[in-house]
């Protein structure tokens, strides 16, 4: 027996390239090439248990140019073999003719007595020539038949694998969660959306033509069959009070750049909020201040995703009698990406100065149902007896965005002095209460309240 020594390594790498073509001299064993590839996978952030679709892009390599080259080579061999057969058939026919002539043309001799003698010629050379030509013809025909079988085999393989069915499986942390059958022609690319139920944070992997469920032909490589990416659940991040922006992952993408390599990208959402236009920041007790809350949302993956917060709640360090320190703000605008909130409209009793959150606070114990209400505007009022000092208020937002994030915004107002500081005491003449200037807004049209006291003031009715 003949022995052949080879060196090889066993490294357990199932992705090692498979030799696509046979060794020289064994071209009859041409290996049909096929290669599937998982090219892209997207990981969507979602709540555990939510039904989602995971995008997976797959493709099949195109080896037709390689086969066309092989087919051309074999067809050239067929033409050469056919020419060789034709030439060898001509040689055989010529040798057959020579042998026939040799056998039909015996040696003719006439002896001394005049007798004619005929002897068979030695046609061994012609016979050998014919045998040689016949042998070469058999080999030429065998060679031609072999080349034709290569084309027939190639045609059969092309027909069989023109659109083979395989499967794509999706796994979450190693456990299969979805699969889908697929057919691909050479050079074709397809995008699948695999339905499954989100299992939480982890790693998802898609694999085409996976081990244990592969088609009956070996691929040129299996390195590019799987592709994976990270997947996340909502972070529920709550910004610390004073932090005006929070950020969360919304999508991961892994994309193939070669048979051996993939690159990954991460996409985020950002939620921000601010307390703007605080007026006034310094005030007397008994007065109110106003402000606005502005929210902004940005999603790097889906620019139109409506992720801004839709509610806002203020927590104040003080409140007038009958009011709660926690107050929902009123939304005045929201387009999904930005939103604006203002304090609710407040109303003041014209007589007592108490603050109410309704023009007719019928449920309040501090309103007798008769007092006239003054429109206090969109403000929050400090009680008249509130001491001087700096006071911090907060505004919190409920979970918003894909990651269900929330904010806690803070700002500060300073109370210095009281509303009573704005009153001026002076003597008033009953018949001329406003000698220099016109009455203020709260006395306009009511001067008679004082002038009607003239007789009493001057004791004109005294007896």
From TrEMBL:
Residues 130-157 form a coiled coil. It comes from the Bacteria. Keywords: Coiled coil. Residues 1-10, 73-88 have a biased composition (Polar residues). Residues 58-72 have a biased composition (Basic and acidic residues). The keyword Coiled coil applies. Residues 1-29, 58-98 are annotated as: Disordered. This is Uncharacterized protein. It comes from Bacillus mycoides. The lineage of its organism: Bacteria, Bacillati, Bacillota, Bacilli, Bacillales.
């Amino acid at each position: 027996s003949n022995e052949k020594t080879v060196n090889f390594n066993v490294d357990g790498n199932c992705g090692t390239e498979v030799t696509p073509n046979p060794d020289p001299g064994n071209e009859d064993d041409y290996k049909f090439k096929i290669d599937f590839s998982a090219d892209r996978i997207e990981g969507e952030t979602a709540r555990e248990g939510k039904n989602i679709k995971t995008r997976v892009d797959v493709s099949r390599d195109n080896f037709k140019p390689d086969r066309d080259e092989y087919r051309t080579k074999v067809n050239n061999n067929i033409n050469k073999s056919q020419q060789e057969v034709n030439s060898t058939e001509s040689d055989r026919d010529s040798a057959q003719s020579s042998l026939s002539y040799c056998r039909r043309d015996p040696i003719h001799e006439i002896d001394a007595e005049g007798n004619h003698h005929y002897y068979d010629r030695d046609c061994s050379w012609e016979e050998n020539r014919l045998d040689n030509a016949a042998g070469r013809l058999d080999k030429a025909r065998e060679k031609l038949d072999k080349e034709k079988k290569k084309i027939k085999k190639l045609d059969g393989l092309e027909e069989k694998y023109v659109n083979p069915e395989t499967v794509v499986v999706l796994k979450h942390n190693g456990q299969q969660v979805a699969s889908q059958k697929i057919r691909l022609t050479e050079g074709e690319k397809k995008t699948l959306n695999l339905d499954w139920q989100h299992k939480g944070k982890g790693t998802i992997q898609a694999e085409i033509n996976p081990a244990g469920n592969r088609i009956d032909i070996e691929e040129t490589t299996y390195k590019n069959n799987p592709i994976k990416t990270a997947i996340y659940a909502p972070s529920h991040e709550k910004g610390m009070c004073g932090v005006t922006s929070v950020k969360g992952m919304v999508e991961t993408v892994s994309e193939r750049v070669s048979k051996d390599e993939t690159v990954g990208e991460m996409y985020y959402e950002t939620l921000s909020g601010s307390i703007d236009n605080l007026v006034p920041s310094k005030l007397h007790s008994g007065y109110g201040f106003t402000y606005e809350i502005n929210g902004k949302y940005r999603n790097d993956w889906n620019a139109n995703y409506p992720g801004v917060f839709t509610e806002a709640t203020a927590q104040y360090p003080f409140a007038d009698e009958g009011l709660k320190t926690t107050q929902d703000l009123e939304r005045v605008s929201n387009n999904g990406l930005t939103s604006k909130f203002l304090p609710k409209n407040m109303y003041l009793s014209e007589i007592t100065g108490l603050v109410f959150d309704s023009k007719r606070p019928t449920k309040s114990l501090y309103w007798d149902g008769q007092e006239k209400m003054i429109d206090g505007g969109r403000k929050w009022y400090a009680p008249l007896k509130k001491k001087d000092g700096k006071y911090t208020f907060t505004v919190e937002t409920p979970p918003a965005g894909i990651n269900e994030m929330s904010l806690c915004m803070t700002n500060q107002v300073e109370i210095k002095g009281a509303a009573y500081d704005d009153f001026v005491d002076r003597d008033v003449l009953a018949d001329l209460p406003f000698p220099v200037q016109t009455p203020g807004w709260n006395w306009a049209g009511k001067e008679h309240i004082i002038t009607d006291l003239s007789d009493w003031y001057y004791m004109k009715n005294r007896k």
